[in-house]
Request: fold
Amino acid sequence: MGAFATVSEKVAFSTEKMTKQNVFDSTHMFCDVYGLEPGQEQKAHAHAGSDKVYYVLEGTADVQIGDETRRLEVGGLAHAAPGVAHAVKNPGPARVRLLVFMSPKP
Amino acid sequence: MGAFATVSEKVAFSTEKMTKQNVFDSTHMFCDVYGLEPGQEQKAHAHAGSDKVYYVLEGTADVQIGDETRRLEVGGLAHAAPGVAHAVKNPGPARVRLLVFMSPKP
Reply:
């Protein structure tokens, strides 16, 4: 991306599955924008040595961190520490866009 | 913060200087919200071993990365690789709020 990116222009959706668009990728971290149509999800998983962050750019998302699931609106953030299971689902009816960070890269 | 935070409620400003509110702090990264009144800035500096990210939540910010300065609106993101000088200034007239990540913690 170079040093600058316009996250608000990173808009992509697919009826097949959740989309991921890379924003930047560096030695210590990477940053993606996810796009989820209603009903689409990223299933629960964990990264043994990495932190993961979801930040809601658009829509309403059900985010699971460990044993807890919360419904997040725009401006909501969730952080999964290393080894902690995390998942996200779009309950609809609107589309969801998320800004996602992981560090370090797994 | 626990695993969840509401970044949209992290609103703080000071006439003295730019504010920083921590959102979360983990082994590999930390996340703050900065608040800048018109004219306030974070002067150019670099972190030898860490990546730094500014994401514009509110307002218009002049962000310098290395030798380049760009005016970013809401949804704009800037990434400073390790060792690269970076700075941010609020040119006004509106307030600026930024979501800021650093990894690893310096």
Notes: The mean pLDDT of chain B is 96. The longest strand of chain B covers residues 51-58.
